[in-house]
Amino acid sequence: MKSFNELVGKLSDPASRQALKSMQRGIEREALRIEKSGHLALDKHPQALGSALTHSRITTDYSESLLEFITPVFEDIDELVEDLTLTHAYSVRHLNGQRLWPVSMPCYLGDAGDIPIADYGSSNTGQMKRLYRKGLTYRYGAQMQIISGVHFNFSVSDQLWERLYELSDKSLSLEDFISESYFGLIRNYRRLVWVLPYLFGASPALCSTFIQDPKTNNFPFEVIGNGTLYLPYATSLRMSDLGYTNQEQDNLNISYNGLACYLDGMKSAINMPSANFAKIGVKVDGEYRQLNANILQIENEFYSPIRAKRVAKGNEKPSESLARAGVEYIEVRALDVNPYSSVGIEKSQIRFLDLFLLNCLLQPSQPTDGAEEAEISANLNSVVLEGRKPGLMLSRSGEEVSLSSWLESLFGELKEIAKLLDDEQDDYQVALAKWHKAVDNPDATLSGQIIKGLKEDQIDHSEWVLQLAEEYHQQLKAYPLSDAVTARYEQDAKASLAKQAAIEAEPSVSFDEFLADYFKV
C-alpha cells in the first residue's frame, strides 16, 4: 500500500480533490425530554412528532423520553446542520412546554424504576423493539440507557473509491476493496479514537443524582457547588465505566481485521450464552424479560465506538446487510453532546471529523493483535478519565509517547488533507486551527471549557445545563420555519402514524413465533 504522503500527492489534481470533497454525512442526535424543572419527562412520545416506530427523522432510543433526531444524508455541511436545526425547531414547538436536556449525562433523577421504556406499539416489530430495551434494563439498569450521544455517519464518494482503486494493486474486486478499506479506516480510527474525547468530550462532570451512593463508587470525585461531581482532568465520563459499557462483552474479541473476520466474530457473539444474563430469565411466569440470555440479545447491543454499516433491505440484520454487499458507510459513536450548540454538534467539529476520518482512510492500516487491542483500550480509558492531565503519556506501538506530541503530529497530517479540501474560504484549515489550540491548552477542549466555566461561576452543573436548556428552547422556538417546512413535518408525522397503524392491522403470527423466526439460524 502507498504511504500517506504518496497518496496525498496522487490526490492533489482537481478531479481527485473534488472526489475527496464529495463526502456524504448524516447525524443522529439524542436528547432527553425534560420538564421545566429539569426532571425527566415521564409522559408518552408527543403525537405531533409522529410514530417513533416509522418516522424517518424523529424517533426515540431507549426511553420514551429519549428523543433521537436523524438527518438524511448530505454532501453539504451547511445543508446538513440546517436540516438538523429545522427538525429541532419543529420538535420544540410540540413538546407541550417541555425542554431538551442539552448534555450527555442526565440529571434530576428520581427512582430509576420510573424511567419509561420506549413504546413502539402492538406490532411484533414494535414489541420486539420494546422487549430489547426491557432486556437492557434488566441487564444494566435504566439509568445507563438514558445517557445521550451524537452519532456521525460518514462515507466517501464513488469517485474517490474509483481513484483509490486505480492506485491500488487491484488484487481485490472493487466491492471487496471498498469494504477492506473501510475496515482499514476503522482500525486506524480505533488507534486514534482517544482524540475525540480529548477534543470533544463534554461530560467531565455530572449531577450527583446520577450516582445514588457516591461513597460506593470507585471514582475519586471532587465536588463543585452543592451537587456537581467531577474528575479534575476527565473529558468524557459518558465513555467511562459510568457510561454505556458492557463488561460481558470484554471476552468477545470481535476482530476488525477485515469484513470476513468481523462477520465471523459477530456470528459467534450473537450465539454466545451468558451465565449472568441467564439468571435474569427470558420468559418468567409468562412474561418476557429479554429477547434471549446471550451476551448480545441482538447485534445493536454490541458496544463499539465505531460501526461498519450498510442500509438494510427489508428485515435484514446488520451483519446480513454487510454480508450481502459489503460496507457502505461507517458510524462514529464516540461523540458527547456538545453543550455549546443548540443541536449538539457544530460545523467545526464536522469538518474536523471529515479530516480525521479521511486521515484514517488514507494512512496504512496493519491488522491489530491482542497486545494492540489492549493498548487501544488503555489509551482510551486514560483520556476519558484524565485526558487533560499535564504531561499525560499514552502508548503507541508499545512505546510511551506524550498525548500532546502525538496530537501535534496528527494535526500536521490533517493539515495536508485540509489543504486539498479547501477553496477560497479555508474552512477546513480554520476549523483545524480552532481545535489545534487545544493541543497545548487543555482548557480549549470542550471538557476544559465546561470545568473552567463551572469553577469560575461557582454554579452547579445541573443549574448551568438547565439554563442552557431554556436558552436553546427559546432560540429554537424562534428559529424561522416556513409554512412549507412546517407542512412537511406535519405530513411526515401523520404519514408515520398511518404507517404504524397499517403495520399493526396486518395479519401476523404470534409474538413467540415471530421471535423464533427472527433468531432462526
TrEMBL record:
Catalytic function, reaction form: L-cysteine + L-glutamate + ATP = gamma-L-glutamyl-L-cysteine + ADP + phosphate + H(+)
Nucleotide-binding recorded as keyword: yes
Enzyme class: ligase
GO MF entries: ATP binding; glutamate-cysteine ligase activity; metal ion binding
Pathway assigned to this chain's UniProt record: Sulfur metabolism; glutathione biosynthesis; glutathione from L-cysteine and L-glutamate: step 1/2
Annotated keywords: ATP-binding, Glutathione biosynthesis, Ligase, Nucleotide-binding
Membership in a protein family: Belongs to the glutamate--cysteine ligase type 1 family. Type 1 subfamily.
PANTHER family noted in UniProt: GLUTAMATE--CYSTEINE LIGASE
Annotated protein name in UniProt: Glutamate--cysteine ligase
Organism of derivation: Shewanella pneumatophori
Gene that encodes the chain: gshA
